[in-house]
Prior knowledge:
The protein is of the alpha/beta class.
Amino acid sequence: MASRGMAAYRTDVWSDWCPGCGDFGILAAMQKAFAELELDPATTVVVSGIGCSSKTPHFINVNGVHTIHGRGIAFATGIKLANPRLTVVVNGGDGDLLGIGVAHFVALGRRNIDVTVIIHNNQVYGLTKGQASPTLRKGEKVKSIPVPNIQDAVNPIALAIASGYTFVARGYALWVDHLKELIKKAIQHKGAAVIDVLQPCVTYNDIYTAEYYRDRLYKLEDDPNWDPVVRDPSEDEEKKAQALKKAEEWGNRIPVGIFYVNPLKDTFEERLQKRNPHYNAVKPPAFEEIADSDGRPIIGPDEFRKLFAKYIVKVKGR
Ligand code: SF4
Ligand code: MG
Protein backbone atom coordinates (compact mmCIF):
# COMPACT_ATOMS: atom_id res chain seq x y z
CA MET A 1 0.00 0.00 0.00
CA ALA A 2 1.40 3.37 -1.00
CA SER A 3 2.27 5.68 1.84
CA ARG A 4 0.91 8.83 0.20
CA GLY A 5 -2.37 7.44 -1.15
CA MET A 6 -4.27 8.44 -4.26
CA ALA A 7 -6.04 11.34 -2.50
CA ALA A 8 -2.71 13.12 -2.09
CA TYR A 9 -2.54 13.53 -5.87
CA ARG A 10 -5.99 15.14 -6.18
CA THR A 11 -6.60 18.89 -6.31
CA ASP A 12 -9.77 20.81 -5.51
CA VAL A 13 -9.83 22.44 -8.97
CA TRP A 14 -13.31 22.05 -10.49
CA SER A 15 -13.39 19.99 -13.69
CA ASP A 16 -15.53 21.11 -16.64
CA TRP A 17 -15.19 17.83 -18.52
CA CYS A 18 -18.57 16.49 -19.68
CA PRO A 19 -20.09 13.89 -17.33
CA GLY A 20 -19.06 10.44 -18.59
CA CYS A 21 -15.95 11.68 -20.45
CA GLY A 22 -13.15 9.11 -20.65
CA ASP A 23 -10.71 11.75 -19.39
CA PHE A 24 -11.94 11.02 -15.84
CA GLY A 25 -10.72 7.42 -16.17
CA ILE A 26 -7.31 8.52 -17.43
CA LEU A 27 -6.99 11.02 -14.57
CA ALA A 28 -7.89 8.37 -11.99
CA ALA A 29 -5.41 5.90 -13.53
CA MET A 30 -2.65 8.53 -13.36
CA GLN A 31 -3.40 9.40 -9.74
CA LYS A 32 -3.42 5.72 -8.78
CA ALA A 33 -0.18 5.07 -10.67
CA PHE A 34 1.54 8.08 -9.06
CA ALA A 35 0.39 6.91 -5.62
CA GLU A 36 1.59 3.34 -6.13
CA LEU A 37 4.95 4.56 -7.45
CA GLU A 38 5.05 6.98 -4.49
CA LEU A 39 6.15 9.77 -6.82
CA ASP A 40 7.38 12.83 -4.99
CA PRO A 41 5.13 15.75 -6.07
CA ALA A 42 8.13 18.07 -5.81
CA THR A 43 10.05 16.15 -8.48
CA THR A 44 7.15 15.17 -10.75
CA VAL A 45 5.90 17.37 -13.60
CA VAL A 46 2.78 16.93 -15.73
CA VAL A 47 2.88 18.96 -18.96
CA SER A 48 0.06 19.48 -21.46
CA GLY A 49 -0.85 21.35 -24.65
CA ILE A 50 -4.36 22.55 -25.47
CA GLY A 51 -7.60 20.56 -25.54
CA CYS A 52 -10.04 18.92 -23.14
CA SER A 53 -7.36 16.43 -22.06
CA SER A 54 -4.77 19.16 -21.65
CA LYS A 55 -6.58 20.42 -18.56
CA THR A 56 -5.24 17.34 -16.73
CA PRO A 57 -2.33 19.12 -14.94
CA HIS A 58 -4.85 21.26 -13.03
CA PHE A 59 -6.32 18.15 -11.42
CA ILE A 60 -3.12 16.41 -10.28
CA ASN A 61 -1.31 17.61 -7.20
CA VAL A 62 2.24 17.66 -8.63
CA ASN A 63 4.04 20.36 -10.61
CA GLY A 64 1.94 21.18 -13.67
CA VAL A 65 2.49 23.18 -16.83
CA HIS A 66 -0.47 23.86 -19.16
CA THR A 67 1.27 25.13 -22.30
CA ILE A 68 0.18 26.01 -25.85
CA HIS A 69 -1.34 23.97 -28.65
CA GLY A 70 0.85 21.08 -29.74
CA ARG A 71 3.84 22.15 -27.66
CA GLY A 72 3.53 19.99 -24.55
CA ILE A 73 6.35 17.69 -25.70
CA ALA A 74 8.59 20.67 -26.57
CA PHE A 75 8.18 22.08 -23.05
CA ALA A 76 8.64 18.62 -21.51
CA THR A 77 11.87 18.16 -23.48
CA GLY A 78 13.26 21.40 -22.07
CA ILE A 79 12.17 20.53 -18.53
CA LYS A 80 13.69 17.05 -18.66
CA LEU A 81 16.98 18.19 -20.20
CA ALA A 82 17.33 21.05 -17.70
CA ASN A 83 16.76 18.61 -14.84
CA PRO A 84 16.99 14.92 -15.83
CA ARG A 85 16.21 13.93 -12.23
CA LEU A 86 12.54 14.89 -12.67
CA THR A 87 9.75 12.48 -13.63
CA VAL A 88 8.06 14.11 -16.62
CA VAL A 89 4.67 13.09 -18.07
CA VAL A 90 2.88 14.72 -21.03
CA ASN A 91 -0.90 14.67 -21.50
CA GLY A 92 -2.44 15.69 -24.80
CA GLY A 93 -5.18 14.84 -27.22
CA ASP A 94 -4.87 13.11 -30.56
CA GLY A 95 -5.34 16.50 -32.24
CA ASP A 96 -2.77 18.24 -30.07
CA LEU A 97 -0.07 15.54 -30.17
CA LEU A 98 -0.62 14.02 -33.63
CA GLY A 99 -1.82 17.10 -35.55
CA ILE A 100 -0.15 20.42 -34.77
CA GLY A 101 2.32 18.75 -32.37
CA VAL A 102 3.31 15.77 -34.49
CA ALA A 103 6.83 17.04 -35.26
CA HIS A 104 7.56 17.18 -31.52
CA PHE A 105 6.01 13.72 -31.11
CA VAL A 106 8.42 12.29 -33.70
CA ALA A 107 11.41 14.21 -32.25
CA LEU A 108 10.87 12.82 -28.74
CA GLY A 109 10.92 9.27 -30.09
CA ARG A 110 14.05 9.67 -32.18
CA ARG A 111 15.89 11.25 -29.28
CA ASN A 112 14.59 8.64 -26.79
CA ILE A 113 14.33 11.19 -23.99
CA ASP A 114 13.06 9.67 -20.73
CA VAL A 115 9.56 11.21 -20.86
CA THR A 116 6.13 9.51 -20.79
CA VAL A 117 3.46 10.66 -23.26
CA ILE A 118 -0.22 9.88 -22.65
CA ILE A 119 -2.42 10.41 -25.72
CA HIS A 120 -6.12 10.92 -24.94
CA ASN A 121 -7.29 9.45 -28.26
CA ASN A 122 -10.97 10.21 -28.92
CA GLN A 123 -10.71 10.70 -32.71
CA VAL A 124 -12.12 14.25 -32.49
CA TYR A 125 -11.15 17.77 -31.44
CA GLY A 126 -13.48 17.75 -28.42
CA LEU A 127 -12.73 21.24 -27.08
CA THR A 128 -13.62 22.90 -30.40
CA LYS A 129 -16.85 20.93 -30.91
CA GLY A 130 -15.90 17.63 -32.46
CA GLN A 131 -14.09 18.15 -35.78
CA ALA A 132 -12.27 15.12 -37.25
CA SER A 133 -8.87 14.65 -35.63
CA PRO A 134 -5.84 12.85 -37.14
CA THR A 135 -7.00 9.50 -35.69
CA LEU A 136 -10.50 9.49 -37.23
CA ARG A 137 -10.52 6.94 -40.04
CA LYS A 138 -11.38 7.75 -43.65
CA GLY A 139 -15.07 7.32 -44.42
CA GLU A 140 -16.19 7.78 -40.81
CA LYS A 141 -18.73 10.43 -39.87
CA VAL A 142 -19.00 11.44 -36.24
CA LYS A 143 -22.00 13.50 -35.31
CA SER A 144 -20.56 16.98 -35.56
CA ILE A 145 -19.12 16.69 -39.09
CA PRO A 146 -21.65 17.00 -41.95
CA VAL A 147 -20.05 14.47 -44.34
CA PRO A 148 -17.69 11.50 -43.85
CA ASN A 149 -14.00 12.17 -43.28
CA ILE A 150 -11.94 12.09 -46.51
CA GLN A 151 -8.48 11.81 -44.91
CA ASP A 152 -6.63 8.70 -43.84
CA ALA A 153 -5.90 8.35 -40.13
CA VAL A 154 -2.56 8.37 -38.34
CA ASN A 155 -1.87 5.12 -36.50
CA PRO A 156 -0.32 6.27 -33.18
CA ILE A 157 1.26 2.88 -32.40
CA ALA A 158 2.90 2.54 -35.82
CA LEU A 159 4.06 6.17 -35.78
CA ALA A 160 5.56 5.77 -32.31
CA ILE A 161 7.51 2.65 -33.33
CA ALA A 162 8.71 4.29 -36.54
CA SER A 163 9.78 7.38 -34.58
CA GLY A 164 11.96 5.41 -32.14
CA TYR A 165 9.90 5.28 -28.93
CA THR A 166 11.23 2.47 -26.77
CA PHE A 167 7.99 1.78 -24.84
CA VAL A 168 4.77 1.67 -26.87
CA ALA A 169 1.41 0.68 -25.42
CA ARG A 170 -2.32 1.18 -25.84
CA GLY A 171 -4.79 1.48 -22.96
CA TYR A 172 -8.48 2.12 -22.53
CA ALA A 173 -9.78 5.01 -20.43
CA LEU A 174 -12.52 2.97 -18.77
CA TRP A 175 -10.21 0.10 -17.75
CA VAL A 176 -8.64 2.19 -15.03
CA ASP A 177 -6.60 -0.50 -13.26
CA HIS A 178 -5.23 -1.92 -16.52
CA LEU A 179 -4.31 1.61 -17.64
CA LYS A 180 -2.77 2.34 -14.24
CA GLU A 181 -0.39 -0.60 -14.70
CA LEU A 182 0.59 0.62 -18.18
CA ILE A 183 1.28 4.12 -16.81
CA LYS A 184 3.44 2.69 -14.01
CA LYS A 185 5.46 0.62 -16.49
CA ALA A 186 5.82 3.56 -18.89
CA ILE A 187 7.14 5.83 -16.11
CA GLN A 188 9.51 3.15 -14.84
CA HIS A 189 10.84 2.55 -18.37
CA LYS A 190 14.08 4.39 -19.13
CA GLY A 191 13.45 6.20 -22.41
CA ALA A 192 10.66 7.72 -24.48
CA ALA A 193 7.36 6.02 -23.63
CA VAL A 194 3.95 6.49 -25.19
CA ILE A 195 0.52 5.17 -24.25
CA ASP A 196 -2.23 5.61 -26.84
CA VAL A 197 -5.34 5.70 -24.64
CA LEU A 198 -8.68 5.05 -26.35
CA GLN A 199 -10.96 7.59 -24.71
CA PRO A 200 -14.71 7.84 -25.41
CA CYS A 201 -15.84 11.44 -26.06
CA VAL A 202 -19.47 11.07 -25.04
CA THR A 203 -20.45 14.45 -26.48
CA TYR A 204 -19.05 14.37 -30.03
CA ASN A 205 -17.99 10.85 -30.96
CA ASP A 206 -20.99 8.59 -31.54
CA ILE A 207 -18.93 5.86 -33.27
CA TYR A 208 -16.23 5.01 -30.71
CA THR A 209 -18.47 4.70 -27.68
CA ALA A 210 -18.04 2.64 -24.51
CA GLU A 211 -20.36 0.00 -26.06
CA TYR A 212 -18.22 -0.10 -29.22
CA TYR A 213 -15.06 -0.75 -27.24
CA ARG A 214 -16.71 -3.18 -24.79
CA ASP A 215 -17.49 -5.55 -27.65
CA ARG A 216 -14.08 -5.39 -29.31
CA LEU A 217 -11.17 -4.77 -26.94
CA TYR A 218 -8.89 -7.57 -25.88
CA LYS A 219 -5.63 -7.65 -23.94
CA LEU A 220 -2.42 -8.62 -25.71
CA GLU A 221 -1.08 -10.16 -22.51
CA ASP A 222 -3.93 -12.71 -22.47
CA ASP A 223 -1.96 -14.54 -25.17
CA PRO A 224 0.75 -16.44 -23.23
CA ASN A 225 2.99 -16.30 -26.30
CA TRP A 226 2.88 -12.50 -26.61
CA ASP A 227 6.31 -11.10 -25.73
CA PRO A 228 6.93 -7.43 -26.68
CA VAL A 229 10.31 -7.04 -24.92
CA VAL A 230 13.61 -6.75 -26.81
CA ARG A 231 16.20 -8.68 -24.76
CA ASP A 232 19.00 -8.62 -27.32
CA PRO A 233 19.63 -6.08 -30.12
CA SER A 234 19.29 -8.90 -32.67
CA GLU A 235 15.60 -9.27 -31.69
CA ASP A 236 14.70 -5.65 -32.33
CA GLU A 237 13.62 -5.94 -35.98
CA GLU A 238 11.39 -8.94 -35.27
CA LYS A 239 9.77 -7.29 -32.18
CA LYS A 240 9.06 -4.14 -34.15
CA ALA A 241 7.53 -6.15 -37.00
CA GLN A 242 5.19 -8.07 -34.67
CA ALA A 243 4.15 -4.80 -32.98
CA LEU A 244 3.44 -3.13 -36.33
CA LYS A 245 1.34 -6.11 -37.39
CA LYS A 246 -0.73 -5.85 -34.19
CA ALA A 247 -1.02 -2.07 -34.67
CA GLU A 248 -2.87 -2.73 -37.94
CA GLU A 249 -5.56 -4.72 -36.13
CA TRP A 250 -8.69 -2.58 -35.86
CA GLY A 251 -12.25 -3.81 -36.39
CA ASN A 252 -14.02 -6.67 -34.67
CA ARG A 253 -11.02 -7.08 -32.38
CA ILE A 254 -8.85 -4.24 -31.06
CA PRO A 255 -5.75 -5.00 -28.98
CA VAL A 256 -4.69 -3.10 -25.86
CA GLY A 257 -1.58 -3.66 -23.76
CA ILE A 258 2.14 -3.37 -24.43
CA PHE A 259 3.11 -3.55 -28.11
CA TYR A 260 6.87 -2.98 -27.93
CA VAL A 261 9.57 -2.37 -25.31
CA ASN A 262 13.28 -1.89 -25.88
CA PRO A 263 15.13 -1.25 -22.61
CA LEU A 264 18.55 -1.60 -24.30
CA LYS A 265 18.72 1.71 -26.15
CA ASP A 266 20.52 4.61 -24.46
CA THR A 267 18.65 7.84 -23.78
CA PHE A 268 19.42 11.28 -25.17
CA GLU A 269 20.39 12.37 -21.64
CA GLU A 270 22.97 9.55 -21.43
CA ARG A 271 24.41 10.47 -24.84
CA LEU A 272 24.57 14.12 -23.83
CA GLN A 273 26.39 13.25 -20.64
CA LYS A 274 28.99 11.26 -22.58
CA ARG A 275 29.67 14.37 -24.67
CA ASN A 276 29.88 16.61 -21.61
CA PRO A 277 30.51 14.85 -18.28
CA HIS A 278 29.54 17.99 -16.36
CA TYR A 279 25.95 17.60 -17.51
CA ASN A 280 23.75 15.86 -14.93
CA ALA A 281 26.46 13.75 -13.22
CA VAL A 282 27.94 16.88 -11.60
CA LYS A 283 24.98 19.23 -11.73
CA PRO A 284 21.91 19.49 -13.96
CA PRO A 285 21.63 22.99 -15.48
CA ALA A 286 18.45 23.64 -13.44
CA PHE A 287 20.47 23.32 -10.20
CA GLU A 288 22.66 26.33 -10.98
CA GLU A 289 21.69 29.25 -8.77
CA ILE A 290 20.92 32.38 -10.71
CA ALA A 291 18.36 34.02 -8.38
CA ASP A 292 17.70 34.49 -4.67
CA SER A 293 14.72 32.96 -2.86
CA ASP A 294 12.53 35.86 -4.02
CA GLY A 295 13.46 35.26 -7.65
CA ARG A 296 15.75 38.32 -7.92
CA PRO A 297 18.79 37.73 -10.19
CA ILE A 298 22.00 37.26 -8.22
CA ILE A 299 24.25 37.18 -11.25
CA GLY A 300 24.69 39.45 -14.25
CA PRO A 301 24.90 38.50 -17.95
CA ASP A 302 28.67 37.93 -17.91
CA GLU A 303 28.53 35.59 -14.88
CA PHE A 304 25.52 33.85 -16.46
CA ARG A 305 27.53 33.16 -19.61
CA LYS A 306 30.46 31.88 -17.52
CA LEU A 307 28.23 29.63 -15.41
CA PHE A 308 26.53 27.98 -18.37
CA ALA A 309 29.73 27.71 -20.44
CA LYS A 310 30.30 24.45 -18.53
CA TYR A 311 27.35 22.93 -20.39
CA ILE A 312 28.64 23.74 -23.86
CA VAL A 313 29.96 20.68 -25.64
CA LYS A 314 33.58 21.29 -26.55
CA VAL A 315 34.74 20.01 -29.93
CA LYS A 316 38.47 19.24 -30.24
CA GLY A 317 40.37 21.66 -32.43
CA ARG A 318 37.68 24.39 -32.31
FE1 SF4 B 1 -14.65 14.81 -22.87
FE2 SF4 B 1 -15.60 15.11 -25.33
FE3 SF4 B 1 -16.65 16.53 -23.33
FE4 SF4 B 1 -14.18 17.05 -24.20
S1 SF4 B 1 -16.08 17.29 -25.36
S2 SF4 B 1 -14.82 16.89 -22.05
S3 SF4 B 1 -13.42 14.99 -24.74
S4 SF4 B 1 -16.71 14.30 -23.56
MG1 MG C 1 -9.09 14.53 -29.32
